[in-house]
Design goal:
The structure holds 2 protein chains of 2 kinds. Chain A is of the alpha/beta class. In chain A, the strands form 3 sheets. In chain A, strands 1-7-6-5-4-2-3 form a 7-stranded mixed beta sheet, with helices on both faces. In chain A, α7 links the parallel β2 and β3. Chain A is globular. The mean pLDDT of chain A is 94. Chain B is an alpha/beta fold. Chain B has 14 helices and 13 strands. In chain B, strands 1-7-6-5-4-2-3 form a 7-stranded mixed beta sheet, with helices on both faces. Chain B has a 4-stranded antiparallel beta sheet with strand order 10-11-13-12. In chain B, strands 8-9 form a two-stranded antiparallel ribbon. In chain B, α6 crosses α7, α8 packs parallel to α9 and α11 packs across α14. In chain B, 63% of the residues are buried. Classes of the chains: A alpha/beta, B alpha/beta.
């Protein structure tokens, strides 16, 4: 029997394992935690903060004091720390391992960025304090703008959109404003079938009809079909490049020229810009507007779903229509925010958010850019593309790659290799959880059946990739060998077994209600 | 290049496995004339260099915590317990994605469920979503939701709504079917603003948008507004730009609101120069399927254990595409986590006390300011912010005070230069204000208006 340095046995070699698992008394199973809701732990009378005492005074709230119970539960500070620490342990994050979500771009989140965002001169300044007291913040916005314009070779940028989809809204509004300014009422926006759902939703929000452009067998937009659809009713074409199949639209310049010849604008969804930064400039490709997802491309944390940030670069034809506010340089060299439309010539499309956008994300993105430099951004794109192609090359013999390589920053597979195995894309993804990985993006893009979109990003080492590939290969081979049990109940080793999403939608329970109520 | 793990040997080995010689062979789809452009950007910096570079910029700004500080108008300086920022930086929260794989995202999903509950309770509504970009964009979404619910187009925006919020609604709806009727701000007469909103409602109205406390701070009973709206089959949208007020004031739900939107930055979140912030959005059960944004719901797993998932996604852009309720595909995850942790620390008891302390500080500041010759307080009621009329241009006074090291508030002209209220100043106070801060404000203001 092996012993540790205190003479205790390190393996339970002499103990017979129980036939069934013990039922515990706490709901926990070791480190598999059963954490109640804050409402089940706390109560309305407990508080975890000490607030300055004060004497009674005459209130001046118009006699509208809240008299009914609010119901918010509180806990003492140690219990709050435990509750949320325990919840954190039910999550998977990029800090824990490979997070290969295609088109979502989960890369390392440097902690330097967090530190910079918390500098008092950044995190503790008010959007409406006098501009003379925030010159450094305006300088930071200027510097970020410089980087974004330079890396895209575009003449203008609007920082204020609060997320990628908000950036799309900004770009399409700028297009509509430009068309209206020349008295051109167009009504259609063309979107490829493979587009992110936000593209058609955004177009519809700006009052446009959406027409789909089909794809070709090689995963790209059908340029002939696009040209046929182009006429004087088309306001814009929205294309994602690299596209959602992980491929570069080779004929992008031809598309741009055709779009411009038809008097329309070329919107590029920049969700996948991380594949080409430093390698190609949207400005050279004829793009009129492209949003960045700062959180994807420049490593600001996704935080379990936001906050994002979606600056938009604009061409000469669109830059006069940029939203408010934006930074201008005064004659004396000081910086000023242009916050309201000023006079006749001001064509701005208006204000998209109450203040100036996601300053906290600007500083993180700029911190990332400064750390990489122009040289490193280019290297990052190359490594992201190299890693994706390495995965594609290492798996294409056991899985079914949807398109011939090379791919850009993400490798697309579909479910043909699972044919007749009884295993679905969903099952395969859930089995990856048991392998200790967050699954790839499933069932997107919609143009291939049972899609699996794998994006490793540039921050994975070869060792990590090899381990990941071993798991993917192993699962593919297990599925083909008829090991369906591994898949149908998966995940087995997660904080929860497979969750019933149908019940959640049929009988929505969207908040806690006390049992007595 | 500290974030890039591949060595040149790795790269060579991997290119070999792929079967190409040079990395640019992987970029062959980019037309060669566009590949590898000259880009004039600095080379990479060390961590120390980046820290110096950004710290230098940060040091040019006046941090709110370093001076007597009375700036509000939709963003508020509150104390955030250390616990909050510590926990949200745990990697499992910070570096997670949208919880599309619920089995390994229960931490995120459970806090969203707690957040939704807290917002519903605070606003006095049935349900809330997982958060929006910020209060202003939430307001624009609420106006568009009211159109979907009522099938009417005419939205009335009261004069007490934050001018930036009004501007966002106008921008966002300029290409939709919504017609926006914006009423004038009347800083000196809150009842007139309320009456004007009531009078503007007719049977073609989809919604009336009213802010409480108003942008100038007034706290009003909105029951008559709700009655008029409902009699005309219109929705009452109540905007709250200072969520802390909900700990002291009767909730919008109790006053008859149909949708409550607003800014929840005040609980758990810093000023951040205007973002990221935390939009809240709550409504009644019957409208839940018209609500924009993400929703988390309770369910069970195959063992019957309680768990949480994103739900009702058939409203959303990734399923309904051009027919979606909105194009939104995110929320303010980390900000809502910060909110939820701070709320759990406060509990009802702590929140009520903190809210009342905010009001107490504002009353103290108001009493001190009202005693200055030439300064007229315009409010009959308020929470932690009120408006004064100065004998001089308010923006000039604010600049003068800033040079004296006091950040005195927001001139109304900063919010809307065209409204003609250039002598109006908004002054906010929170629990962070000390007696010494008030003395400095009063003394500097006396000098500036004399």
């Amino acid at each position: 029997m092996s012993m540790n340095n205190q003479g205790r046995p390190t393996a339970a070699t002499d103990v017979e394992a129980p036939a069934e698992m013990f039922e515990g008394f706490s709901g926990h199973k070791g480190l598999r935690l059963a954490e109640p809701l804050i409402y089940e732990l706390g109560n309305t009378q407990t508080t975890g903060v000490d607030i300055e005492d004060f004497d009674d005074f005459d209130m001046e709230i118009g006699g509208l004091e809240r008299t009914t119970e609010i119901g918010c539960a509180g806990l003492a500070e140690p219990d709050v720390v435990r509750h949320y620490t325990r919840l954190s342990r039910l999550n998977y994050g990029i800090d824990m391992g490979v997070f290969p979500l295609g088109s979502c771009t989960m890369k390392h989140n440097p902690r330097l960025n967090e530190k910079m965002a918390r500098l008092p001169g950044i995190g503790d300044i008010h959007p409406l304090q006098p501009q003379s007291t925030v010159q450094g913040a305006l300088e930071l916005m200027e510097e970020l703008s410089h980087w974004l314009m330079t890396i895209t070779n575009m003449p203008a940028v609007a920082l204020s959109p609060k997320a990628g989809a908000h950036g799309e809204l900004c770009g399409v509004m700028a297009i509509r404003a430009a068309l209206e300014a020349r008295g051109d009422a167009r009504e259609v926006i063309l979107c490829p079938e493979s587009a992110h759902g936000t593209n058609p939703a955004t177009a519809a929000f700006c009052g446009y009809k959406v027409k789909s452009i089909p794809g070709k067998d090689n995963g790209r937009v059908d340029v002939e079909a696009l040209k046929e659809a182009l006429d004087d009713t088309v306001a814009a074409v929205m294309i994602t490049n690299p596209n959602t199949c992980g491929l570069f639209e080779q004929e992008v310049r031809e598309i741009a020229d055709a779009v411009h010849a038809a008097g329309a604008f070329f919107y590029c969804d920049g969700a996948n810009f991380n594949a080409i930064m430093g390698k190609a400039c949207p400005g050279d490709l004829g793009v009129d507007a492209m949003h960045f997802n700062l959180h994807k491309t420049f490593s600001t944390p996704h935080g379990g779903g936001g906050p994002g940030s979606g600056p938009v670069v604009l061409s000469d034809a669109l830059k006069d229509f940029a939203p408010l506010p934006y930074v201008v340089k005064e004659a004396d060299g000081s910086l000023k925010l242009h916050e309201w439309k000023g006079g006749e010539g001001d064509k701005s499309l208006g204000r998209l958010t109450a203040f100036h956008g996601q300053m906290g994300m600007y500083v993180r993105a700029l911190s990332y850019m400064l750390s990489h430099g122009g040289d490193g951004l280019k290297q990052a794109s190359e490594d992201a593309v190299l890693n994706a192609n390495y995965i594609l090359a290492s798996l294409e013999d056991v899985m079914s790659a949807s398109y011939e390589g090379p791919c850009m920053h993400e490798a697309l597979f579909d479910d043909r290799f699972l044919k007749d195995t009884g295993v679905t894309t969903l099952d395969f993804a859930k089995a990856m959880i048991d392998e200790g990985y967050h699954p790839m993006t499933m069932y997107f893009p919609l143009v291939v059946h049972g899609a699996m979109l794998v994006e490793p990003t540039e921050t994975e080492s070869k060792f990590n990739l090899d381990q990941f590939i071993r798991s993917m290969r192993g699962l593919a081979e297990a599925a083909k060998a008829g090991e369906t049990k591994r898949f149908e109940g998966a995940p087995y080793y997660a904080p929860r077994k497979r969750l019933d999403e149908t019940q959640a939608a049929r009988k929505p329970v969207l908040r806690y209600t006390p049992p007595s109520a | 290049m500290r974030y890039l793990p591949l060595t040149s040997d790795d790269r060579q080995a991997m290119l070999g496995k792929i079967g190409v010689r040079h990395v640019d062979d992987l970029f062959k789809d980019i037309p060669s004339e566009f590949l590898n452009p000259e880009i004039d950007l600095p080379r990479h910096k060390t961590e120390l260099e980046v820290e110096r570079h950004l710290s230098r910029m940060a040091s040019k700004n006046t941090a709110a915590g370093s001076v007597p500080f009375f700036v509000g108008a939709g963003a508020y300086k509150h104390h955030v317990p250390s616990t909050v920022d510590h926990i949200i930086q745990r990697g499992e929260f910070l570096t997670a994605y949208t919880p599309y794989q619920p089995e390994i995202a229960q931490g995120t999903l459970q806090y969203i469920f707690e957040f939704q509950t807290q917002i519903a309770q605070l606003t006095g509504m049935d349900v809330a979503n997982a958060s929006m970009y910020d209060g202003s964009t939430a307001t624009a979404e609420a106006v568009m939701m009211a159109r979907r619910v009522t099938r009417k187009k005419r939205a009335v925006i009261a004069g007490c709504v934050h001018p930036h919020y009004r501007a966002v609604v106008e921008t966002t709806t300029q290409y939709t079917d919504d017609e926006v009727v914006a009423l004038d701000a009347q800083p000196a007469d809150a009842q007139a603003e309320l009456q004007a909103a009531i009078d503007a409602i007719d049977e073609t109205t989809s919604c009336v948008v009213f802010q409480n406390p108003g942008v100038c701070g007034n706290v009003l009973d909105l029951t008559p507004l709700a009655e008029k709206a409902h009699a005309n089959k219109a929705l009452l949208i109540v905007v709250v730009t200072e969520v802390m007020s909900l700990g002291l004031i009767t909730s919008p739900g109790e006053m008859g609101a149909d949708i409550v939107v607003g800014e929840a930055q005040s609980i758990g979140n810093g000023l951040n120069f205007g973002g990221p912030y935390l939009g809240m959005f709550a409504t009644n059960q019957k409208y839940v399927r018209q609500m924009p944004g993400r929703l988390c719901g309770e369910t069970v797993d195959s063992d019957g254990t309680r768990g949480f998932v994103l739900t009702l996604s058939t409203r959303e852009q990734h399923i309904r595409r051009e027919k979606a309720t909105s194009n939104i595909c995110t929320n303010s995850g980390l900000c809502s986590l910060a909110f939820t942790i701070h709320m759990s620390l406060l509990g009802e008891k702590g929140l009520r006390k903190l809210s009342k302390l905010n009001h107490k500080k504002a009353v103290d500041v108001k009493n001190a300011i009202a005693a200055i010759d030439g300064v007229e307080v315009l409010n009959s009621s308020f929470f932690n912010e009120f408006a004064v009329r100065l004998p001089k241009n308010a923006a000039d006074v604010v600049e003068k005070l800033a040079s004296d090291g006091v950040l005195a508030g927001v001139p109304f002209s900063r919010l809307d230069p065209n409204a003609g209220h250039d002598d109006v100043l908004l002054i906010a106070a929170t629990e962070t204000v000390t007696d010494g801060d008030i003395e400095e404000l009063v003394s500097a203001l006396k000098g500036a208006v004399a």
